[in-house]
Amino acid sequence: MIRGEALCKRFGDVTALNPTDISIGTGKITAIMGGSGSGKTTLLRLLAGLEKPTSGHVWYGDEDLCTMPVKRLYELRESMGMLFQYSALLNSLNVYNNVAFPLHEHTELAEEVIATMVAMKLEQVGLRGFEKLMPSELSGGMAKRVAFARAMAMDPKIVFFDEPTSGLDPISAGVISTLIQETSRKNRMTSVVVTHDVAAGLAIADHVILLWQGSIIAEGPPDAIRESDDARVQQFLQGRPDGPIPFSRSTTSYIDDLTHKPGTIRLES
Amino acid sequence: MSDLFIKQSAPAVFFGKLGRQALRGVEQIGDATMLCFQALALIVARPWQGKHFILQLSALGVGSLIIIVITGAFTGMVLALQGYYTLAKFGSESLLGAGVGMSIIRELGPVLGAFMIIGRAGSSITAEIGIMRVTEQTDALEMMAVNPMQRILLPRIVATTLAVPLLVSIFDVIGIGSGYIVGVELLGVNPGAYIAELIAKVTMHDLYGGWVKAVVFGFMIGAICTYMGYRSEPTTEGVARATTQAVVIASVGVLIVDYILTSFFL
């Protein structure tokens, strides 16, 4: 069980995530959804330990990710995988070496065994035979599929997916969604999926968390989310421009901004 | 809610900006020192980064060889030319070898060599690490339980610390050799006098001084350029700005530290 306790993250004056409690069920797929800037990627990065929270804790069982020694954190990460929004393939390595990277780093397996495992992972994402290509020679969709294969290379227990289907054609998006679902079920893998793809999120998740302006506004099984009577939830699910979630994110007066003169400072009274 | 607007005086704006920049500078120096020591502390940690160190030494050292040879050759040639006509006024052309040798070994080799390596290798270190940040490759390494400080920063800092003195030594040899060609072959200085004065006047103290400078400059280049890349704002503009700043800070830093070290070695 991964548990966020009063997790809060601020970047300077901007609050990306208000104090939030969150639980990620073991062996389940949890989809974190919300509009752009709602804090979902920040929450994912906090859960993965890529960001330190301004306050709060991230518990992996009874260990606090935020205070554990670096050595222990890296031990824990050997059983984790992450698919980044823009793939994050290592530019200096070809497809084979990208997928084999975690295996080379953390196992003593013979190269033939690693080659077999890489071929299996690439077959899974439909890219066997592309081992020698460099990341710069791949399309966005192909890069994401290679990144998926790399995230799965060590058969991790926990995988974080940051926008796994964004920028993909419908077929590739469908394949990735199916792969997330099938791999999670088969391996009893804990998956945390950040997405604003409502259909994909609701289709594959066991548990859905909906964020708005850095706070959780709804959570529960997909059916409960679909049937929620919260107007904000319905506006997000249906993609309506009008509703309680405003399109404009500006917080200052339009007139004041237009009349504010350069070289002066504003004193609120 | 109504707002009041007051105009800030020009000195207030100026000193406000100056103060903020000074504080930011001090903060950055502290952060860079911490990061550098954190990376260096990992030198004894497993897994060993020997393979990555050799790769970096090859990329930074061998890759900079041609530019070092060209710079060394033309520096020696110009020094011989300028030195010959100056010394000829006093009838001391025989001291040309000593003049060229001391200038290159003590000052021009370490400083010009460092400048060339900053331009050739330092900028590419900052840009490469910055791009790795933009494209989340450093985060990907973290998530694959590979410490980016140990894998990315440490081999580059160690490689530049070792590569710069080696390259500066090559610069020195090429510079003195090309000075010999211009002085002896083109301007007619006695070859025996060139070599004899060089050996007589250039001491081991000069050589050690040059190498110490080269080691310090190499470490500075590695530390500054990796820091600027690692802490660059993860945007295209941020990486471009960090690369420019790395080159400027490292170059100015080399000149300042050169003066300090020279004052110790004289």
From TrEMBL, chain A:
Q: Which CDD domains match?
A: ABC_Org_Solvent_Resistant (cd03261)
Q: Which residues form the ABC transporter domain?
A: 2-238
The reply on keyword Magnesium is no
Q: Which InterPro entries match?
A: AAA+_ATPase, ABC_transporter-like_ATP-bd, ABC_transporter-like_CS, P-loop_NTPase
Q: Which UniProt keywords apply?
A: ATP-binding, Nucleotide-binding, Transport
Give the molecular function GO annotations: ATP binding; ATP hydrolysis activity
Pfam families membership? ABC_tran
User: Is Cell division given among the entry's keywords?
Assistant: no
Q: What is this protein called?
A: ABC transporter ATP-binding protein
Automatic annotation (TrEMBL), chain B:
In the bilayer, the protein is annotated as: Multi-pass membrane protein
- Give the location in the cell: Cell inner membrane; Membrane
Cross-referenced Pfam families: MlaE
Species assigned in the record = Mariprofundus erugo
Q: What is this protein called?
A: ABC transporter permease
Main localisation, per the record? membrane
Listed transmembrane segments: 54-81, 153-174, 211-230, 242-261
- GO CC aspect terms: ATP-binding cassette (ABC) transporter complex
